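Bug #77: duplicate submission created two jobs. Keeping one. Sequence:
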Amino acid sequence: MTNASRTQLMNIHTLQWDEEILRDFNVPIQMLPKIASSSEIYGAAQLPAIAGAAIAGDLGDQHAALVGQACFKPGEAKNTYGTGCFMLMNTGEKPVLSNFGLLTTVAYKFGAKPACYALEGSIAITGALVQWLRDNLGIIKNSSDIEALARSVTDNGGVYFVPAFSGLYAPYWQDNARGIIAGLTRFANKGHIARAVLEATAFQVREVVEAMAKDSGITLDILRTDGGMVINNLLMQFQSDVLAKPVVSPRVKETTALGAAYAAGLAVGFFKNTDELVANWKEDQRWEPKMNEESREQLYHFWKKAVTRSFDWVESRQ
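Kept job's structure:
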């Protein structure tokens, strides 16, 4: 079901292929497969090594991470920090249509139970910005070197990096924006740029969190995190600081694979219910906010100012 929704041919309300959209795209419904839930037995494996094993769990990447993070209550959210960032907030059994730049998606559907929905905020460039610093500028040799370089300075020195390399995704959806580095002075050095690179991720996540609060009417209590960038303690602490919320990571880092396994386990009765999955979730690290309100809002103010400077860089030709 979650994968079907990504084709943009499925009606997320009826959970069936949308006949009107199919007509618009001239897609015969006969060529499309049956839409199934995220957790049921679809068939059995035939390969000799696993013959007879049930094939039973099927979730899209970010939906699986939401399940792996055991975010089963409305308002619970996870954020995956990879080359981009993908944040999903569970909104319960009724879809919440966004007015603030987010996507409404089916989160999961376990067997015959009602589907649950989520708000999703997609950020294009986060970890990819660290790679850009490494590959295009050669400022660092390895991606893991960025934390030490960023710690060589006490703050960003007034430098802000808006990584709108291919436009801005949620919550702006500005395809004519382009990346900028703002606030440079003669005082700025590569340590400040490295710090601005990491802070850009946290600022973008705050913008998505704020959009989710506006759309859902739910204030986030805690942010569950996963993905490759979670090992960066400076980033995670700054994320907590700029959100003024606790940020936690789970013991099991591969939350996407875990979520798919959970769905399969529910289908075959290995797990009785989602309460078992919630009980299985264990916290590994926690970052608590330490920054004062004045500093937090001043930093965010200049980030928002920098973002506006990236708008409308590409001019359309008539």
